[in-house]
Structure formats: structure tokens, C-alpha cells
Design brief:
- This protein has about 290 residues and is an alpha/beta fold.
- The strands form 2 sheets. Strands 2, 3, 4, 5, 6 and 8 form a 6-stranded mixed beta sheet that branches. The protein has a two-stranded parallel sheet with strand order 1-7.
């Protein structure tokens, strides 16, 4: 009798501490000693509700009320079990509906991208070592324009335009700007007018170099599965629409996020940056010639 009292008292303490596994263990021990210990059944039922073990909770309430039919606490708990089951089932339905809506939108994006057959994708750029969780997430990605972040291409239902996540890169300062939803119908000029409306914090605030009329835009072109040394710097008109640029045969979308390089016009850094890629191209061309001879 004393051991049963100690067990159900310890179960009560662990119930408050949310140690539900220990609650069930102590109550089971108490019930093995005294099968009609209603307090053990009551606390077991509460722990089962917290663990979403609703069938076990129902059984505990039924067992306890079979012993004490007039136990108001157990009767109230039995009602709570029913309410908890209803809430749980509602959450499941809501989660399934959210997933259904997500799948519909995902399929719409798939159809929109398939129509734009000129787009080229490469998912091989993330060569870092992944954790097991990241591997599982990556394995769940079906399409090459998807990635394991929240930055995904979307479809604007009202216009039928794709909205891309886009990076603008500033190599001189090693800074970047991220545009979450870039309408493919907008030009680079349209977007940069917003991004560079005010001088960036890292630019000279009195004599800024990065203004819409003083920069040029480029993208780095690298074949699918290619390496850094295969990269080429391609200048692109700021008056070209994003959708047109992404359809360029030289443009490869990596991990679902297009990016553009922004360089100040007639600037020493820009000259050096362009020269670096010119030399890289010459080196590759020389190597190719030697390989063919």
C-alpha cells in the first residue's frame, strides 16, 4: 500500500514536469500491485492524452469508471479525451489540406516551367557535405528548380508569370542583395532602380559608384556539371526582361536561384574583374587546342 502511494505521488510530480513516460511507468507499476488504483488510471489517462495516445487514454478512463462509476474527474477526463481526439483529427485534416494546396501550386509551377522549355537547370553546385537531415530533405526534392530552402520560384496566379528568387552580387564589396519575388516580365533596370534607389551602405554615400546609370550587369555562365574554371562572364543588357535572360542558352539556373553580377562602369575593379575572366577563357582555349593536337 505504501509503495502504491509513493508510485502514484511520484507520477503526479512527473505529470507536472511533463515526464510522461515516467508517469506511465510508475502508474503501470502501481496497477500491477493494486489493479483498482483509480488515481493511477487517472494519471495514466492524462499522460496518454499529452502523448496523443488517445486509445490508451480512453481505455484508462473506461477502466477507472468501471471501478468508480461516479468519479467526476474521470468522467470529465473522458470528455477531454474526446475533445483531444477531435482537435488532433482537425489538425491532421488542416495539415493535409495545406499539403494538398502546396502540391497544387507546385504542379502549377512545374507546368509553367515546362512551357518555358529553354530554361536550363543545374543542381550540382552544392558540393558541401550534408547532414543526414539535409540529405533526407534533398532527396525529397523532385524538380531541378527546387532547393532545400524557403527561397523557391512561384507562379503569380493573376498574371501567369513566374516569380523568381534572385541574388544581385557585388564582387567589389563582397556584398549582395536578395529579391524574394522577381517577376520574370520585369527588366534588370526595373529591379535595380528599386534596389539601388539609395546608395548601398557599403558604397560611398557622398559619391556613390553604384547607381542605376553607372553600373553594368553580367551573369556567370558555367555548363551544367562544370567547374569554376569553366565559368565565363557574360554581359547582359539591363533593359532585357528576366524571363528572356533566363532563356539564354548560356544561362544556367543553379539550385533554383538566378543571380547577376553588378559592376560599376569604367572602374579599375571592373577592369580587373573582367580581365580575370578573359585570362581564364584564354587559358581554357589554349588547353583545348593542346588537347586536340
Amino acid at each position: 500500500s505504501l509503495k502504491v502511494t509513493l508510485l502514484i505521488n511520484r507520477a503526479a510530480a512527473n505529470l507536472e514536469l511533463q515526464n510522461y513516460g515516467k508517469v506511465l511507468h510508475d502508474c503501470a507499476d502501481a496497477l500491477r500491485i493494486r489493479p483498482k488504483t483509480v488515481k493511477a488510471l487517472f494519471r495514466s489517462a492524462r499522460a496518454c492524452i499529452a502523448l496523443e495516445k488517445f486509445e490508451e487514454a480512453k481505455e484508462c478512463c473506461k477502466w477507472g469508471l468501471g471501478i468508480e462509476p461516479d468519479n467526476k474527474e474521470l468522467a470529465a477526463l473522458q470528455v477531454q479525451v474526446g475533445e483531444a481526439v477531435a482537435r488532433h483529427e482537425r489538425r491532421i485534416r488542416e495539415r493535409e489540406e495545406r499539403q494538398r494546396q502546396k502540391d497544387v501550386l507546385r504542379d502549377q509551377v512545374k507546368q509553367a516551367i515546362e512551357i518555358r522549355s529553354e530554361l536550363t537547370f543545374d543542381t550540382s553546385s552544392d558540393k558541401r557535405k550534408r547532414t543526414e537531415d539535409e540529405d533526407a530533405a534533398a532527396a525529397a526534392l523532385t524538380y531541378p528548380w527546387e532547393n532545400d530552402s524557403a527561397r523557391q520560384v512561384e507562379l503569380d496566379q493573376s498574371t501567369g508569370h513566374l516569380l523568381w528568387p534572385v541574388f544581385f552580387l557585388y564582387p567589389e564589396s563582397k556584398e549582395s542583395d536578395f529579391v524574394e519575388k522577381y517577376d520574370e516580365a520585369l527588366t534588370l533596370r526595373d529591379m535595380l532602380q528599386e534596389v539601388l534607389a539609395d546608395p548601398p551602405l557599403w558604397d560611398d554615400q557622398q559619391r556613390p559608384k553604384y547607381t542605376i546609370d553607372a553600373v553594368d550587369t553580367y551573369f556567370l555562365s558555367r555548363p551544367v556539371g562544370g567547374f569554376d574554371e569553366d565559368e565565363r562572364l557574360v554581359k547582359v543588357s539591363m533593359d532585357a526582361c528576366l524571363g528572356v535572360i533566363l532563356s539564354n542558352e548560356k544561362y544556367v539556373i543553379r539550385d533554383g536561384i538566378p543571380s547577376f553580377v553588378v559592376l560599376p562602369r569604367n572602374d579599375p575593379f571592373t577592369s580587373q574583374f573582367i580581365e580575370r575572366y578573359r585570362k581564364l577563357r584564354q587559358t581554357q582555349e589554349a588547353a583545348s587546342k593542346r588537347a586536340t593536337n
